[in-house]
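Mods, move this if it's the wrong board.
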Amino acid sequence: MRFPVQRATHWQKRIQLIVVTLLLVSLFLSTIPAQAAEDQGDSAPEGQDIYQKLKAGKRLLDAKSYETPEQPTVYLTFDDGPSKLTGKVLDILEKEGVKATFFALGEQAQAQPDMVKRIVKEGHSLGNHSYNHVYKELYGDFQTFWEQVQHSEDIFADIADVRPQLVRAPGGTYTNFDAYYYYLMDQAGYTMVDWNVDSGDSKRAHVPADEIWQTVKASPLEHEITILFHDGTGHESTVEVLPKVIDYYKKLGYAFAPLTTQVKPRQFPLGKSKWSRSMSMPHFQSLLKATQQYASAHLPQADQDQKEAEQQLVQMTKVAREESAQILSARSLIPLQVHIVGGGTFTLQSSEYQFRSNRIELPLRFLIEKIGGQVEWQADKKIANAHYGVYDLEYDLSARSIRLYTLGTCVNTYFLADMELLDGKIMVPLRKTVDLLGGEITESIIEPSRREVSMAFRQFYLFNENKTLAKYALFTREGNV
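Not the wrong board. Structure tokens:
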């Protein structure tokens, strides 16, 4: 009768063993995710968050500061070289006293090393345009794009001892770049550069010089213009039209300069990619590690310090921002005292003038009438005519130009002139306007709690002593309107 009892005990032990085994397996499996998270450290959630945002097509931009030139500026850029034509382009630039930027191919640099050396030696900027310009390779996966940029950079370093931080994507970034491309290049410390004026010299083979000229001339004028040209084989028309283009912008009052990392780059917005590609999380992490390691090894320390400073600036507390705003608000309430030698003193309240970038701007009519001149406004043409002594200034707001007349004869025209229609008043820079009227700023005091300006006009006395000359100037000017 003991056999059944022993059999029941045997099955109970087997059941207990199974339960214990299941519990142990469950506990083991539960520790794997925790261990994986521990191995990844605190950066795993952050990396995952960045990856998800980029996957959703969102560009992640680091805060950067740039320098805006005071004078309107043109940045001439040349792609796909160097070639046998590059020497002719450099000859023209040297003759015109103009600096430019050359986005060179590594493959072409190997074939024309002397041209690369000359570009750098003559003070132009050298940019990276990939190694072979083959779209299918460059935009099939970021890994290939990255390797081509690195390969070209090593070539430039061997030839001219430079590692360009400026990069132009062949064909431009629009529909070629996605959020991953932009982010990874930014992490490596590179600056991607597109353009806002396309000369059209590469839309087909052998574009006529006149067509390129008409395209450039029809392009809108902005304070900073980045023009796309090509100096690769087959672009003889670009060389032919280049002097005419330079002369055109010089007459408009533009300066020329090479691109640097301090110039705010022209970048196209993200568009729907025309390339079929994907990015897994492990692949992204591998690429991110590679780009960040590159930045640590090659990015100049000054740039790293600047980046850290910019990040600190972005992280300003709310209290600090409010305090800054209060200080700026207090400074903006300072009145401006203007002294005219031989003509008295007047005061402008803070709402009657502007103080921007250490430059005083005030209403044209107010200034001209205070020094004894007159202003007429042609509302239909948006033109203001200011007369003072032998001088007449014609402000054309639509064309953003100023014509200077002396005794009724036009002696100069200033394009892209500083002027702004604000609350029905034309605001103009004080110093520039005084200079145009034959006067000068004799003293300027800009302090936290005090702003004073003194100015003198030679013609002011001339016209008080010589009424005949004043009448002649008025008569001649009226005859020209």
